[in-house]
Amino acid sequence: METIRFVERFIVYIEDHLRENIDFAKTLDDMGVEQKSFLTIFTSLVGMTPAEYQEKRRMTEIAFEVYQGHRRLIDIIKYYGYRDLERFKTIYKRTFGISVHDTERHIKEIDLLEQLAFEVVPTTQAKYPSFRNYVESFRLIGIAQYFDANTYQSKYKYRFLKILENDGLLDELLRYNDGFMKGIFVQERAIEGEIEVFVGVASYQHTPFDETFTESMDYEIFEAKGQPSIVIEDIYQYIFRRWHFKKDINLTCDFSIELLKHTYSIDDPSTKVQVWQAVDH
């Protein structure tokens, strides 16, 4: 329950600083909160990153003000921290799918976002089957990509995977996949203000690729089948919104690991997926 309470408190923090450019990495560091852990939990609960939440809340407040028509548009957007009118219009159109000038006609149809609060709903049935396994640290060889922690979104991970697939690098990595587990591993972790996404395979061989090592941990391993970009996000929502509270287990979220046993494409809806959620002893 404390996890949800902290996310709610952080949402209040965002609301209190809605008009400011929040340095989320620094703010979390000042609070003593590990960035990757918090981003995983926040995104799973809210459905978007803190930066995305702040932007959509800003756009929502602006939409209400535009609809009420009490102030000029240029004054409204300056109040919410936007100095470039054309850039603002682009963000507004991307957020709501309409131009700002169409707001009055479509205010009841657009996807506005009010301040969020949560209600924990218990469940008696496991949505995704899982099993517990202690896994010793093992070597991954692969390719790393780094993203700014303040602006990182989970969709960047799937874009990175798609680029590697299109370039034939996933197939190349699988040639070296002689470790204890077969498939493509995706590991995320925070390193000095950045999110590292490492895509690789378990391997003992000398290769031209980078290498990293996983953590020796107890893992709750959730299994599913589906398009990875959809099913993985749904599993994390299940873990943090339901499973976590039913089991009353402490989670370790400063890194995350997924395993894709893909067929001909990582977009294939028949892809076998595992989410390895680290748990405390």
Automatic annotation (TrEMBL):
Pfam families: HTH_18. The keyword DNA-binding applies. GO terms for molecular function: DNA-binding transcription factor activity; sequence-specific DNA binding. Keywords: DNA-binding. It comes from the Bacteria. Residues 8-106 form the HTH araC/xylS-type domain. This is HTH-type transcriptional activator RhaS. It comes from Jeotgalicoccus meleagridis. The gene is rhaS.
